[in-house]
Amino acid sequence: MATKARVMYDFAAEPGNNELTVNEGEIITITNPDVGGGWLEGRNIKGERGLVPTDYVEILPSDGKDQFSCGNSVADQAFLDSLSASTAQASSSAASNNHQVGSGNDPWSAWSASKSGNWESSEGWGAQPEGAGAQRNTNTPNNWDTAFGHPQAYQGPATGDDDDWDEDWDGPKSSSYFKDSESADAGGAQRGNSRASSSSMKIPLNKFPGFAKPGTEQYLLAKQLAKPKEKIPIIVGDYGPMWVYPTSTFDCVVADPRKGSKMYGLKSYIEYQLTPTNTNRSVNHRYKHFDWLYERLLVKFGSAIPIPSLPDKQVTGRFEEEFIKMRMERLQAWMTRMCRHPVISESEVFQQFLNFRDEKEWKTGKRKAERDELAGVMIFSTMEPEAPDLDLVEIEQKCEAVGKFTKAMDDGVKELLTVGQEHWKRCTGPLPKEYQKIGKALQSLATVFSSSGYQDLNDAITEAGKTYEEIASLVAEQPKKDLHFLMECNHEYKGFLGCFPDIIGTHKGAIEKVKESDKLVATSKITLQDKQNMVKRVSIMSYALQAEMNHFHSNRIYDYNSVIRLYLEQQVQFYETIAEKLRQALSRFPVM
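Given the sequence above, the corresponding structure tokens read:
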């Protein structure tokens, strides 16, 4: 009897790779269970054959019966039974929230901050971010030739086992803002919100049989929340609620990109070396592993903490040196961001990503993370503010204040990206050409004068022309020394800010549910104790939002102070270099 398998995840075939496109829930026939390289050969009901990743399917019992068709797993069912709100209610709420918050390409398109709410002044914030933020990575690989290797590095998940997902192929997206002909908002800057604006599409909770995405009602109305082993404390500091920062911090150096292949050379990929500074023990990861980590962090923490998207995937030019360098630089920035965050950096899934020791440990940790039930709004059940509960009016004011500030900052960042891109194009195009024209015109004039004698003047004019040609080269190269870093910083923050509409939408949805609780009490649908629990839990959410904003502001002040100082220092040096060249050219002219 032919072996049947149930498809667990969607898989899109790559043209020319003899792969088979399959969809979640589809039943296929296994024609060759061990093709090699983590692949099997299957046939769908249409008779089409092709390769499918082994990890994407679940072999069915010999009777062909789908073991998941009868209901949820015991663990999932116990989890869902502990929640009072139904899955249907949660799905309805999630759909409503997604429609209200995440519509359109702009994550802010449906966000409204019409209610009053003032953000307290941020004056008095520290000059550098708290905790991990104080250690800024000085080894960012801006110099391509300095990439180093560690022979002892564990080579990452084997390419020949069941850990294969889609390749780094996704869609033709721009990898650098200064090459894009469109505006920064629609071009290179799209990586900041390309995933954040569609996070509901990216959260793959439906990959796990019987696991429904926990809705806001499920968290607010749960009769009794489970007491998780992991606890996320929130304390009140000088500037309000804040996360507890670890006593020792670390960064992670991304370096040594190497090209690898599998399936007898049919599939190629780039693997990067990650070295945490607290262990100095390296592991290797492909881009798709970073993508997996991003999705796990988004699933687990995305309702409370903005998780910026990774640099875009790319089809063409994936192995060109310039693209590899840019991607590695951006992956470095992303990992540094994650290491800075006191909650993310200490999380089990992040630590597992950096510290696994062998293939078995990687797979075990990966599957454990994918079955983590404390995801979505349920992450708030792990948080414990060391402060009295807030009243609903204050909670709403804090939410509105965060929304107002982040929306305004998002507008400011977009404007700076647009202006910066226009300036980049001007500096690398028309402006150098103008200087070159001046230089050539001066040298042409000196040629004309050469026939009438007075050679000293002719030589001085010739050198002045050459000076302007040198200035043209300086102008064309300067953006890479200053504007590049300012633009990259803004790209990162655009990614952060693109996450806030969904976060604020979750908080506003919870606040509205509490407002409706009086009617539910009046109609005996919930008890007075249920309402009090709802207020307490919304208060916890508010403390988490304030703690995250304090972390955000601390990093924002440090980052923009650093990057704008760097920009101005480089600009001063740039103009001083030009001034010195002009002085030298001037000194050649005789004094009359």
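Confidence is low (pLDDT under 50) at residues 64-105, 109-128, 131-214, 314-318. Try to locate this feature in the token string yourself.
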